[in-house]
Amino acid sequence: MSMICKRTRLGHAILLALAVSAAAHAQDVTPTPDAADSSATLGTIIVTAEKRSEDIQNVPISISVIDESTLENLHATQLSDYAGYLPGFTVVSGGAPGQASLGVRGITPLSAGSTVATYIDETPLGTSSNYGGGSNNVLDLLPYDFQSIELLRGPQGTLYGAVALGGVLRYVTKPPDLDRFSWRFGADAFTTEGGSDAGFGGRFGVNAPIIPGQLALSASVSRQDSPGYTDNVRTGKKDQDAYSQQAAHVTLLWKANDDFSIKLQAIQSKNDADSNSSTALDPISLKPTYGALENDNFIPEPYKKDTDYLNATVNWNLGFADFVSSTSYAEVEQHNTRSKYFDLVNCRGPVVANADFIAKHCQQAAKAVCGVGVVIHYQNARLARCCAGLPLLFLLHSGRVHERLYD
Question: Quick check: 357 and 334 in contact, CB under 8 A?
Answer without folding.
Answer: yes
